[in-house]
Protein: EAL domain-containing protein
Organism: Lederbergia citrea
Amino acid sequence: MGCNSCLIEDLQYEIKMNNDHNQSALLGIIKCLNSRKIEVTVKENILCITESGVKELLGLSMDGLNQQLISFRLHTQEWKPISEIEKMLEMQWVDEVIKKKLITCHFQPIVNVSGEIFAYEILSRFVKEDGTLIYPSDIFLAAKNRGRLYALDRLCRMTAVKYASCLKNKKAFINFIPTSIYSPEFCLQSTTRLANHLGMDPSQIVFEVVETEKVVDIAHLKKILAFYKEKGFEYALDDVGEGFSTIELLEDLKPHYMKLDMQYVRGVDSDLKKQQIAKQFLHKATETGSIPLAEGVEEIEEFEWLKQAGYQLFQGYLFGKPSPHAMDE
């Protein structure tokens, strides 16, 4: 069974005409589009059309219509004013990035208390066809808006596994977005097959939950993590911070690794509130059998305080920035 969300097909738009005057123009619009070989379907006051057809639709004269009462949406997303549809069309570049796999990965070291490299986090980097760099925040926002998050997350996950295969005796932390996986049994089969094909020991790979603090469907996340664990992989929670919900997550999910959010790491050596939070989660990690990892370490004083407190793993610019190559390869 495949997942259609991972395929990059022509998007289907719904255009809603919200008053009688606009609806009366539908017949003429449909005739005009059909004459241009554009297929459309209509259900009540909603016109369904592909993205390529939308461009033709926008080329028609809208002068006689009340555009403030016309809205659109993709899939089951929220309705938006038609004036925002151009922004959606401008984000088509994300489709090309995914289809043509315009992605590479960088390695950032994770060290132990002695400063020795224990693992690498494998981070995705993207470029447009013209070579222009793309910020991760921009591409994930575009992918989310265009319903491409499933496909982008899969591309990142599969590419990271390939890069991880070059590491010897080092673990690889690979990010994934829980909301991009509708069913682990189907969505993650290709990941496990690839790791097996590359001859990797599953325990070498640590799948890291992105945006832990934003997870809403805990039952779904537990199902995904149970699948990973069953296949021999490990998992980590990232950006763990202050608050009841994240404490409950640690208790409920019992991750192999817990990453303390960098906002509580920066300046922790001199900030009593951050020290309190760092100690609180260190205690919870120890209690649940998780290995505590502090990310965002930039100063030697932060490193020394965290070591003394009991943290076991560390990540940050103090030890190395993301690089196209692993330091010890």
